[in-house]
Amino acid sequence: MSTGPGPVTAEPRPEPGRDYPRDWEEFGRFFPDEGACAEYLERMSWPHGFVCPACGAGQPPWRGSRRRLVCRACGHQTSVTAGTLFEGTRTPLRLWLVAAWRVATAEQGVSARRLQLDLGLGSYETAWTMLHRFRRAMVRSGRPRLIGLVEAGVRDLPTRPPGAVVALAVEDRGQEAGRVRMQRLAGRGAAQLAGFVAAAVEPATTVRAPAAAGPHLARRGYAPEPARSMRYLDLVAERLNGWLRGTHRGTASAVQLDWYLDEFTFRWNRRSATHRGLLFYRLLEEAVVTPPRPYRTVAGRAR
């Protein structure tokens, strides 16, 4: 619920098999029907017990028809989908959770066409909308900015229509690439790249970038380092290109590109996760605090 508590970030690390399914077989035992799915989302929305989004009362609610939750103090009615990414959907909750599992645990992600086939949906548009709604929940607001030595630059990506320019930043951790941030830009200018860095990277960080961006970065409080090579940025750009051309066959819309970038960021920053089911859990954590996304806002460019 968008007006309820946030994700369970202060809780102990969730346990596989108790807080989330470890594999597809266990998924079936966790979610045999709609009731089990609703109960799971309710626990995620209110991990410490129901809190009325209208008056803040913490009493257990009355349970009405159609899984309505009615506040005992003020009579306000709500549900496990109200104020969340799932609000207004006519698709069964179990299909939503199956979709979340497919999206989160697939190493290279899934296309809308693949999701439609996997879920047995009659409409491609339904699968496309579900996938794009989940992308809105993949990058949480207030996430920490990049630190240490950071490589930053601009690259072209395969989109429809062509011509998309994207800024990328990746942590150089010595023996491996760290976290990434990326965003579509209106142009290739050094000032635009520096503006992106200011939003993605902690101040006073050493930023390896094209020489033209150096003065702009210095004015913003960074320590610019001329880029003689960009081994990790080039690696991330190569993987991103391959993902767009492979999973999405180069058909990613330039208008929707930011959301594809969010999905890639979600996957890259969690690529070493040992429990795939934890990715499913993290995606649902964000889904229950992400505001509703009607089709018209999903289809248009929201940034």
List its salient traits.
303 residues, alpha/beta, 5-stranded mixed beta sheet, 8 strands, 38% helix, 14% strand
What does this structure look like?
- The protein contains eleven helices and eight strands.
- Strand 5 and strand 6 form a beta hairpin.
- Helix 3 (93-105) crosses helix 10 and helix 4 packs across helix 5 (124-136).
- The longest helix is centred in the last third of the chain and has 16 residues, at 231-246.
- Residues 1-11 have low confidence and may be disordered.
- It has 303 residues and is of the alpha/beta class.
Write a concise synopsis of the structure shown.
The chain has 303 residues and is an alpha/beta fold.
Structural class: alpha/beta
- Total number of strands: 8
Q: Provide the gyration radius in Å.
A: 21 Å
Percent strand: 5-15%
Helix and strand sequence? HHEEEHHHEEEHEHEHHHH
- Main sheet makeup: 5 strands, mixed
